[in-house]
Specification:
The chain has about 290 residues and is of the alpha+beta class. It has ten helices and eight strands.
């Protein structure tokens, strides 16, 4: 049991040394003295082969990486001190050294649509886009088998886990905060892989057809209810205005005659062939009294 614990401590110490190399504190991998006698012999033979085959060996030993790339070099299976090489020209020894190029540019990844059950038991399909880049080339090669694939799988899982704790209304109206929380969660989880998650955006939230119809019917009913309330308020305000106008006309008998003449003027202005001649009720009532 103690042997297993010691092995775990040694493995953690090696991972810590690789991670510390990203800050330039200590070198990654084991120093040259740790390769042993066989390593020294193989290194000397490689240099001898390069010197004997000059200048043809330069075609194999000299490599070039672009401005946005870095080269992580392994010598006899161990990381070379100094971290990743590049950009530009670098030198490798044939047969004993191998290198892996890492692209440092920002990569955009479309998260496939995920079927998610929200907290209020509504099934929705959500897709998102994630922008990330390799922050440390050495860690992205040494600490994880496939940094890009692992980041993408983690993005899908994080999307389902985060949205599963939200209501449908929160998903539809609070996308900015959800995206920010997902970005911070992914960035913290992928820091040990040398990955920097720059941005996360929720692209689309697709609802079931039946739920869309139910929400549309609810919205239509709410609009109709508001329209009826507004119409009722308008009728109430109009009735109050008519009552006030009637009270004013009742106070002055001449006001009714003026209103009568104004109505005739409006009818004559329209140039109608048929003229409706209104008869005031007061005249009728006066004739009936006589």
């Amino acid at each position: 049991m103690q042997d297993f614990q010691m092995a775990d401590k040694d493995f953690d110490a090696k991972r810590s040394s690789i991670h510390a190399d990203s800050t330039g504190i200590i070198g990654a991998g084991t120093p040259e003295g740790g390769v042993g006698i066989c390593g020294w012999i193989l290194t000397a033979l490689a240099w001898l082969m390069v010197i004997c085959t000059l200048p043809f060996s330069l075609c194999v030993c000299i490599k070039v990486v672009q401005e946005y790339e870095r080269a992580v070099i392994f010598r006899l299976g161990r990381l070379l001190p100094g971290g990743a090489k590049g950009p530009g020209i670098f030198f490798i020894l044939p047969c004993i050294e191998d290198y892996t190029k890492v692209d440092l540019r920002t990569v955009s990844f479309d998260v496939p649509p995920q079927e998610i059950l929200t907290r209020d038991s509504v099934t929705v399909s959500v897709d998102a886009v994630v922008y990330y880049r390799v922050q440390n080339a050495t860690i992205s090669i040494a600490n994880v088998e496939n940094a890009n694939g692992s980041t993408r799988l983690l993005a899908q899982t994080t999307l389902r886990n985060v949205l599963g704790t939200k209501n449908l209304a929160e998903i539809l109206s609070d996308r900015d905060n959800i995206s920010t929380f997902m970005q911070s969660s992914l960035d913290e989880a992928t820091d040990q892989w040398g990955i920097k998650v720059e941005r996360v955006e929720i692209k689309d939230v697709r609802l079931p057809v039946q739920l869309q119809r139910a929400m549309a019917a609810e919205a239509e009913a709410a609009r109709e209810a508001r329209a009826k309330v507004i119409a009722a308020e308008g009728e109430q305000n109009a009735s109050r205005a008519l009552k006030e106008a009637a009270d004013v006309i009742a106070e002055s008998p001449a006001a009714l005659q003026l209103r009568y003449l104004q109505t005739l003027s409006n009818i004559s202005a329209e140039k109608n062939s048929t003229i409706i001649f209104p008869l005031p009720i007061e005249l009728v009532s006066g004739l009936l009294k006589k």
